[in-house]
Specification:
The chain is mainly beta. It is built from three helices and nine strands, in the order H-H-E-E-E-E-E-E-E-E-E-H. The chain folds into two domains: about 100 residues; about 30 residues, no CATH class. The strands form two sheets. It has a six-stranded mixed sheet with strand order 3-9-5-6-7-8, with no helix packed on it. It has a three-stranded antiparallel sheet with strand order 1-2-4. The chain starts with a helix and ends in a 14-residue tail after the last helix. About 15% of the residues are buried.
Length: about 140
């Protein structure tokens, strides 16, 4: 289980300019709230947002990322919930030790059972299929 404390990393000694960079549709946001390869967020990609709820629970939302921006000392993201169509907005202060109240992650980044689920789904269609016949997926 992911906790607020486990995503908090010390970035307080890094300048704001170094914590937020853009390259075309790719944004590099060096924040403990970002759980992607190289801290990269790409416009029009699908991501998971895990919101930390009061009482220790998590709320999972899948979004299509529409916008990433830096305003002052905060980064902001806006996306569309792919299940409900509602606008989803989150922000967090850069260059701080304040724990994140959400994280944004690559799709299925925290699904430790994905291989078992794929094998079960494929195996139910062809009982003679074994693991060595599966393609390698890069999630």
């Amino acid at each position: 289980m992911i906790s607020k404390e486990s995503v908090n990393q010390n970035t307080s000694t890094t300048s704001i300019k170094d914590l937020f960079q853009r390259d075309g549709n790719d944004y590099f946001v060096y924040s403990p709230c970002i759980f992607t390869d190289n801290k990269k967020l790409t416009i029009n990609e699908i991501y998971e947002i895990h919101d930390f709820l009061d009482g220790g629970g998590l709320k999972l939302t899948f979004i299509k990322l529409l916008w990433v921006n830096k305003r002052g000392f905060r980064f902001q993201i806006i996306g569309i919930d792919i299940r409900t169509g509602e606008v989803v907005m989150r922000s967090h202060r850069l260059n701080t030790d304040i724990p994140c109240n959400f994280i944004i992650a690559e799709l299925l980044a925290f699904d430790e059972e994905i291989e078992k689920k794929l094998l079960k789904t494929i195996g139910s269609q062809d009982s003679n299929l074994d693991k060595s016949e599966l393609l390698d997926f890069d999630f």
